[in-house]
Amino acid sequence: MSTFKSTVTVNRSVDEVFNFLADFNNHKGLMPDNVVNWKSGYNDAYFEVPGMLKLSLKITERKPNNYIEISPVEKPPFAVKLNWEIKGDNDTSTVTFIITAELNMMMKMMASAPLQKLADHQTKALVTQLN
């Protein structure tokens, strides 16, 4: 398994950050510009990256004010899980976005940089959305 992490500090309470991330409708603003055809509900989302992939995701677990797990609905090109971990208090939250992917050596060479870039983009966008 390969793991890609990005951690930021957000000037919002753990409760506010969790409630924002727990609703997939809020995730569109966290996506890179090359994501198109975004459709979402509270528990699920669908999007495309032109020329690369079409992906349906669902929130599979929510631990209030602590953790959100996101999994693919259909089998993607490689096994992947996305997790948001939230820690903090009433004023400030430390938020970590973790992508865990099962990549063979060839996929690891091709996908590692884009997956780390995605993790970094999502957390930076979260700071922009909430600060």
Automatic annotation (TrEMBL):
SUPFAM superfamilies: Bet v1-like. It comes from the Bacteria. Transmembrane segments: none annotated. It holds the Pfam family Polyketide_cyc2. This is SRPBCC family protein.
